[in-house]
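Help wanted!
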Amino acid sequence: MADGSSGKWLAGTVAAAIILLGAGIWLVTAGGGATTAGTLPDDLVPIIGQPETEADREALDPEAEELWARFVSRPDGPPRISTGLTDELGREVSVSCASCHANMDPNPRIRSADDLADFHHGLAYDHGNMSCLSCHNADNYNTLRLADGSAVDYPDVQHMCSQCHAPEARDFARGVHGGMTGYWDRTRGPQTQKSCIDCHDPHKPAFPRMTPDFKPRDRFLEPH
Amino acid sequence: MSDEKQDRTVSLPVLGDMDRRTAMKGVGAALGLGAFAAAASPLTRLGEQTSVAEFMQRHYKELTDEDKQTIFARLETETKQQYGADVTIRDHQPIPGVRYGYAINLSLCNGNGKCMEACHRENNHDRATNESYIRVFEMPKGTFDFEHGSTTFDHDVPQDDKYYMPVQCLQCDNPPCVDVCPVEATWQEEDGIVVVDYNWCIGCRYCQAACPYHARRFNWQKPEIPADEVNPDQSYLANRIRPQGAVEKCHFCLHRTREGRQPACLEACPTGARIFGNLLDPDSEIRWVLANKRCFVLKEDLGTKPTLFYFFD
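Answered by r_m:
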């Protein structure tokens, strides 16, 4: 009798532990948390719910039964501007944005590089009728600026693009825009989705024309 | 009378005293042996092109696991001998609860043809012909009539007055190619992929004639591939190097997709126009596309029920 009750107690403890462990794994893998799109499951909201740091990514247990993550590629951080000079080892010398902009007054009326007397010449711009400071943050040139004035880091640029490009952002969140690589089946492995600027030049976002360089050559396809 | 009788019994000069009945038996036997030798002559020539083991190989569906191991080992050895490449041929089975669906966003596709090239490399196609399971059609806007399309366009893309439509096997749920095969060398698997047992195919090409989408290809010649370009990750029903005289087709990269990975053409697409997934999973990307985009299939009126969809958005 004593053996039986202790056995039940043990079973109950084990069951509780399993439930707690499962909930823990769910919490970890669900990640992110704060979503604004309440109707979407967390794992389909990469714009908001993506792991932002390496530590967050490592916390995603690859052995767990839950779905693997869909990662958004994170482009490099703040751009560096080439000075056209090389150092003693022949490496290109580049400077951060703040190197120059710390000493300059921001001008919100500048709409393309053509408006500038110096710097940024040759930058192709064809992206609506916006000012440089629509996207670049005059308070901290190492970040970008959302419409509400808050800063966003360069690698998370999709947050900013999504402000205007809602249909693309919706498709992106569903994994239908932004070209997948990896696994279609996220019970087996992760997916990686491209970031906006992996395909679109942010200053000239129309997808560039391409030259096809591969053609099948079977005899029925010869022009006739 | 006696003279006539003597004439009848006179023996043929070459056969000595043999009577005519015995002689005819001999002639018949010789003709029979000759006919048998002629009929069996393909067997004597077999060694030049194919091994006895290959000739005697049974249909894929009748093979036991041991049979498959033997056959795959033989095919790997032959690939090493003929192409100088070390390959692994596996037997990917359908994932239970999965039916594959594919969708192509024609608003994004710009006809660059990277999908064709990726297919060419992934699936060990003949290098000389640049063969591929995909054809990208340049189509005038306003029509789906492929008579007006071109696969040989040679200029920058996209052209303003054109749209671009990649066509490959649509993995029909009612595949006419399967119906016409006289030897059942092609069939639909449980996950919807229509496959070919390249060794069972007799090369009659009925399936090519039956397919309304020009999705099947015939190996007129033995594929030529440099050893260092052979994709070693192979599957029996998928991308192993096909023999001359067999028909082949897109298999949704089943050697990848049955491991949960994306097809090669999807990963190669620089425009992100392709979406792949499980039609039976209500949370999958492909289901969201079908529910939220205006999808259509090619030649719907034929009743082939393709599982590859197209949409504009």
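OP: Thanks! One thing I noticed: The helical segments of chain A are 2-30, 46-49, 54-59, 97-101, 132-135, 158-161, 166-173, 196-199.
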